[in-house]
Design a protein that fits this description.
Layout (H helix, E strand, L loop, with lengths): L1 E10 L2 E11 L3 E6 L6 H8 L7 E6 L14 E4 L11 H11 L5 H10 L14 H13 L5 E5 L7 H16 L3 E5 L3 H7 L2 E6 L2 E7 H7 L4 E5 L5 H13 L3 E4 L5 E4 L3 H10 L6 E5 L3 H9 L74
Parallel strand pairs: 3-7, 3-8, 5-6, 6-7
Antiparallel strand pairs: 1-2, 1-4, 8-9, 10-12, 10-13, 11-12
C-alpha cells in the first residue's frame, strides 16, 4: 500500500506538488491522471525516493522507500523505458539488476518470457524500438516479483496487441493482491484498466474515487430518442410533450433528440400517450475522457487555439488577382500535380490517356511530390 500525507514539492518559487494526500490500496489498479505538468512524475519520483519532499511524507507498506529492506524485492517501477545502457543486451541489463538485488539469474529468463522478449534477449538494447524498450522496462519492474508496482505511461509505443497485453497484465497483478499504480494519458485505456482514479491538476488533488463514481460526478447522462424520419410531425410532437413534462430536448445533427431531465421509462410512457412511435430510446453516459476533460479544463497550462491561416499569408500586391481555386483540392484522394515538364525533355514523357495508350509507371525522383 502507498500512502501520501501532505506531500509537497517546490522548486524555487514553483510548486510542483501541493499538499497531496491519497492512498493506493492493494487488489486494484489505480490510475494516476492529470494534465502535462500537473506533478504526476514528480509524485512518482518522491514515492521511489528519487526526489525529497519539501513537506509531507509518502510511505510504502508503512516505510519510506529508502528504508525498505531490499526495495527491489518489494517495489517494481517503470518511469523511463530509455534508462538502459544501449551497449548491453536485454538479458545482460536484467541480469545486472538481478545481481544487485540478490535475485536468482533464472528469474531473468522468466520475465523475458512474460514480456515476450526471449527471442531478442541477446540483442543490444540500442537497437530496440520504443515498444520493445517498454516491454524491457516492464520486465525490470517485475524482476523482483514485488507486491507494489508503479508504471508511468506503460503502453507508450506499444502496438494494439501490446496494449491489450499490458491491460490484462495490470489486471492480473491487481487480482493477485498487489498494489498497482499506473499513470497514463490514454483515457480509453484507463477506462478499461483502472478500478480507481487519483486525479491531480497543478499539483493539487482533484479527485480520489472509483472510475464509475468519477464519471457520474463529472458528467451528465442523457437519453437518445429517434422517431421515424419520414414523419417529422412526430418528432415535433414528442419534443413538445417532453418539454412540457420538464425535460430538456436538444436536436442532434442526424435527426435524433438528446433528452435530459427525464428517466427512460418516463420518456417511453410520454411517447406512448402522445401516439409517437419510437425507433430508438437508449441511455448514454459520458466517457471517462469527457468527464476528465470537464474536471481538468481549468488546470491545463498549455491550450491550443484555432489556426488563423489568413494571418500567415502575405497580402496581395495592389491590383493583383487572387489565385483561382484548384478543382478537387481538399477532397479525398487529391494530391498535388507534378510540375510541368521542360520542353526539351518532353519527348521522353510517359504516354498518357491523351494519346490513347495506357500510362506506364514513371520513375520516382526527389522532385515527385507523390
Amino acid at each position: 500500500m502507498i500512502e501520501a500525507v501532505g506531500l509537497t514539492k517546490r522548486y524555487g518559487d514553483r510548486t510542483a506538488v501541493d499538499d497531496l494526500t491519497f492512498t493506493v490500496r492493494p487488489g486494484a489498479v489505480t490510475g494516476f491522471l492529470g494534465p502535462n505538468g500537473s506533478g504526476k512524475s514528480t509524485t512518482m519520483r518522491m514515492i521511489l525516493g528519487l526526489d525529497n519532499p519539501t513537506a509531507g511524507t509518502v510511505t510504502i507498506g508503512g516505510l519510506p522507500y529508502r528504508k525498505l529492506p531490499n526495495p527491489a524485492r518489494q517495489v517494481g517501477a517503470l518511469l523511463d523505458a530509455r534508462a538502459v545502457h544501449g551497449g548491453r543486451t536485454a538479458r545482460d541489463h536484467l541480469l545486472s539488476l538481478a545481481q544487485l538485488s540478490g535475485i536468482p539469474a533464472r528469474r531473468v529468463d522468466e520475465v523475458l518470457d512474460v514480456v515476450g522478449l526471449r527471442d531478442v534477449a541477446g540483442r543490444r538494447t540500442k537497437g530496440f524500438s520504443l515498444g520493445m524498450g517498454q516491454r524491457l522496462g516492464i520486465a525490470a519492474a517485475l524482476l523482483g516479483d514485488p507486491q507494489v508496482l508503479l508504471f508511468d505511461e506503460p503502453v507508450n509505443g506499444l502496438d494494439p496487441e501490446g496494449i491489450y497485453w499490458v491491460r490484462n497484465l495490470m489486471k492480473e497483478l491487481a487480482a493477485e493482491g498487489r498494489t498497482v499504480f499506473v499513470s497514463s494519458h490514454l483515457m480509453s485505456e484507463m477506462a478499461q484498466t483502472a478500478d480507481h482514479l487519483i486525479v491531480i491538476g497543478r499539483g493539487r488533488l482533484l479527485a480520489d474515487m472509483s472510475v464509475r463514481d468519477f464519471i457520474a460526478a463529472n458528467s451528465a447522462g442523457f437519453a437518445r430518442v429517434r422517431t421515424p424520419g419520414s414523419e417529422p410531425e412526430q418528432r415535433e410532437r414528442l419534443t413538445t410533450v417532453l418539454t412540457e413534462a420538464g425535460g430538456q430536448v436538444l436536436p442532434e445533427p442526424d435527426g435524433a433528440l438528446r433528452v435530459t431531465g427525464l428517466p427512460l421509462p418516463r420518456i417511453s410512457d410520454l411517447a406512448h400517450d402522445a401516439g409517437v412511435r419510437l425507433w430508438e430510446l437508449s441511455p448514454h453516459q459520458a466517457s471517462l475522457e469527457e468527464a476528465y476533460i470537464r474536471l481538468t479544463q481549468h488546470a491545463v497550462d498549455h491550450r491550443s487555439t484555432a489556426d488563423p491561416k489568413a494571418g500567415l499569408t502575405e497580402p496581395l500586391p495592389p491590383g493583383a488577382e487572387p489565385p483561382l481555386p484548384v478543382p478537387g483540392q481538399g477532397q479525398p484522394g487529391w494530391f498535388v500535380p507534378p510540375p510541368p515538364q521542360d520542353p526539351a525533355t518532353a519527348a521522353g514523357a510517359v504516354p498518357g490517356p491523351q494519346d490513347g495508350t495506357a500510362p506506364s509507371p514513371a520513375p520516382t525522383t526527389s522532385e515527385d511530390p507523390r
